[in-house]
Amino acid sequence: MLNNIWSFMILAGVLWGAANGNLSAVTQSLIDSAGAAVSLALTMLGIMSFWCGILQVGMNAGLIDWFTGKMGPLLDFLFPDVKDGHPARKPLAVNLAANMLGVGMAATPAGLEAMKALAKESRGEASNAMCTFLVLNVSSLQLIPVSMIAYRSQYHSAAPAAVVGPALIATGCSTLAAVIFCKIAEWISGRKGL
Question: Would you say residue 111 has pLDDT above 70?
Answer without folding.
Answer: yes
